[in-house]
Design a protein that fits this description.
By secondary structure, the protein is an alpha+beta fold. The chain is 37% helix and 40% strand. The protein is built from 3 helices and 5 strands; from the N terminus they run βββαββαα. It has helices at residues 35-44, 67-72, 74-91; strands at residues 2-9, 15-21, 24-32, 52-57, 60-66. It has a 5-stranded mixed sheet. A hairpin with a 2-residue loop joins strand 4 and strand 5 (60-66).
Length: 92
């Protein structure tokens, strides 16, 4: 199974995430201190059947990754998501 982790700004300096499968909300959390913490929290709650995740930040997809890569490299995945979103928002 491939799920989507959608990360958004929540309050000043905090973030929220939702994990969805084909548009159906599975779980989420809010008030996390960073994009990295959002990714880590989301990955910790995933079912064993999840093999990969799509990472979205502020409604822009940054990539689809094997779950093992996300679990081992959340800082790099978060940095890529933020950089991708920033670059696209600058063009828009």
């Amino acid at each position: 199974m491939i799920v989507r982790i959608e990360i958004d700004d929540y309050d000043a300096g905090t973030y929220e995430y939702r994990v969805t499968d084909h548009g159906e909300a599975l779980f989420g959390d809010a008030g996390l201190p960073s994009v990295v913490e959002s990714i880590v929290s989301a990955v910790e709650g995933l079912a064993p059947s999840v093999m990969a995740v799509e990472i979205w930040y502020r409604s822009i997809v940054s990539g689809t990754y094997p779950l093992s890569v996300v679990a081992m490299s959340p800082h790099q995945i978060a940095e890529h998501a933020v950089n991708t979103t920033t670059a696209i928002e600058e063009v828009m």
